[in-house]
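From the shared-data thread, chain only:
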Amino acid sequence: MSPSVSFHKLSRALGIALVVSATLTPRATLAAEPDSAPVVPSRALRLVFRPGASGVEAPKVLQAVRKELGVEVTTDPTAEAGGGTLVLDLEASQGYVLGEFTAVDGKKTVRLIARPEDPDKSVEVMALLAGNLVRNEASELLEELAKARELEAARRAAAVPPPPPPAAKPKPETVRKKPRPQPEEQVEEPPWQPKHPLRDGGFIHLSLAHPVGLDPHSEHLSVSLELGAFYSRIGETKALALNVFVTRNDERAQGAQLSGIFGYAERLEGAQLAGVVSMGRHIEGVQTSGAVNLSRGPMYGVQGAGAVNGSMGKTEGVQAAGAVNFATADVDGVQVAGAGNYVGHELEGVQVAGAANFAGRGLNGGQVAGVGNVARGVEGFQAAGVFNLSLGALDGFQAGIVNTAFGPIEGAQVGLVNVGGSTLKGVQLGLVNVAGEVKGTSVGLVSIAKNGRIQPTFWVASGKRLNAGVAFEVGPVYSLPFFGGDAYGDRQYEWGVNFGLKARYERVFGALEAGYSSEQKQFDQEITPIERGRLLGGIELIEHTVSIFGGLGVRTTELKQATVESHFGVAFF
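Structure, as tokens:
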């Protein structure tokens, strides 16, 4: 059946379906006044349109679907889709429209129809298909529309006082509900159809350099074997296509396609091997080449190339390349590359690269890179030698020198510098930590949080050693980098950091600290390591302004020569 015949039959069938649907619409929807505006339900229907290379304009499709359904339709991916989700996909199969409607209860219905080459006629076909899917499988949405109109009509009638004498209210008619149709069998993949009619070419065809061969019009043949010397062009092969230089399957290659330099298959169901470049539009199987593999549409299987693998449609499987892997749509699988991996939409799987990984619309899995990882949002992990970046939320962990998440974090960041978004429910462990509101733990030399404290602190140890530092407090954990020296005597200088736990009750607090520092008489002389611990208690004299504290501590030199000290000090803010 040709696409044009399919289009005419579909248009006629869908037109009949729409007339029947309009006839069975509840009569309450007609009870509103003729000049009343249609009531749009509070929930919207989300439209996802994938034009591919069809040339069909998305605004025209949106306008046609709105006009056909008469309800609010949005293409915003962040909007609430309480009325269900409608997908119109022109990428799945050339010359066809794959329509999928997901109702509010999660039930999906998929239908495949042929479409004309004219973009404007394609818009009409998609609008009819949308009306058929939604009216058949989303009766709840249409019932809500009918109820809303009925309520609006009742409200208008109540707002206008009835003229005397009051007219007898007619007895409402029984509304016959439209029977819910049985769900159709879902279509996993559209059935393959050749673009042009194919002739049976027998078991084998031989080519020298197309059109020089057994049949000069071999692009319209379906054979089991194609054997060529310089350039083979065949419609369909069912077992093997082999050429020393170039092989081209205009329709489909089943089994294996082997080419010395370049191989192309409109649809591959098997294995494609080429010395330099392997290419196809729809790949189900394996593509391998010395340099480049490219799928101009979806790829389900494995791509292995010495330099670059590329997919311009949905990708499920593995891409492995010496340099770069890229996929412009969603990826469900694994990418491994010597330099970089790129996913234009969502990645559900793992990326491993020597340099960098990128997931444009979110990551559900993991990224491992020698330099950096970037994703719009992360559910999983990012590990890199230099930096990790989540442009949205992080639900998992990041490990690198610099870790950054612009959205809320539920998990952990481990690195020298960690930067979180609005909230942190988890752990930051690093030299410098920055976050919004922390509902977990932040441990580092410098930790800054919206609900934390930064306190300049001064104290005296045993009446002779003066110390000054800054305490960075986040929750019960704090760090205290400091510098100190003897006020008299040996004139020893000391610098280091203490880490502590603090408990507060109103204005009273207690703290337990442990730390490490270096001591020397002159900055160019030998350093003596110092270990210390102390137990402190204090009170805020002025809330969030001035605190005083005191306690006892023990210091040792290389865990020897323990000395007990007394500590008294003041902290601000």
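The radius of gyration is 36 Å.
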